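hey so u asked for the seq, here:
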Amino acid sequence: MKITILSRSGAIASTRRLVEEARARGHKVRVLDPVKVEMHLDGRSANLYYRRSKLKSCDVLIPRIAQSISNYGLAVVNQFAMRGVPQLNGAQAIAQARNKMRSLQLLSANGIDIPATVMARDAADLKAMVSLVGGVPVLVKLLQGQEKHGVMVCESLQSLEAALEAILGLGHNLVVQQYVKRTGHDVRVFVVGGRAVAAVRRRARVGRLSRTLIRGARLRRIEPTEAQKRAAERSANLVGLEVAAVDLLDVKGKPKVFEVNSSPAICEMEEATGVNLAGLVIERAEALVEEHRRALEGRPAEKRRPRSPLKEGVA
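ran it, structure tokens below
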């Protein structure tokens, strides 16, 4: 099988793990920097070039699109889709996950419990609306991913006010969201092919913006509850992601989904859980290629979901 991974560099830890697992399973794999991919359309075909050389076809695409290149990177992903290449994940699903408010609107409209969330363009309005999310502490999130960093935990109104004025002053849109400090932890569930395959509880760093709450956090492997598994699996499916990390708050035993991530860090989760997540992603890629082949041949697809290490006691 020929696998293409879209990533800024093969040296990035998560990308490196995917390459290792793909090659260990006997596949050919190439890593392409999305910003060096050129695209050509003429109404009849959708061609791709890399450094001005025409790209040969591949069997499956694994996008690892950095937030700083979302617009161009997603156009590249979409061009592969136009050529009929199966993908983990598609451009529309990635874009939906990247827009935090829209993804929350989608989840809420489909009955997924989410933390109380407010959005406004004025710092004074947001500060006044904090009571609607239960008061501090709160999560402050940049809405979309052109920025290097995007999440902050604010524990006081003073720190919140300073954060809001600074971020809104730079022209960024953001949301303020309920955060439960009673336990001091939240849960991240890794989902592959519609199945929860690993989970951690984490303690986030307070008062600093980071790309995700997992950066710098202390992670501890857990066995998620059935409710947490269902919430994570339904959320990934609603957003349309084959591979996702779903972040949950546990409020009085009920999971509240506060974010769905389309390019989750793999290595930290593997280290904390002992689960070969990169291998499960490649396994799902193999299944997608087989499903695609059967569809082209007009045969019914054999739905293969990844094995669940959670049920095998590995995680």
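Confidence is low (pLDDT under 50) at residues 208-213. Residues 116-178 form a domain with the Dna Ligase; domain 1 fold (CATH 3.30.1490.20).
lmk if thats what u needed
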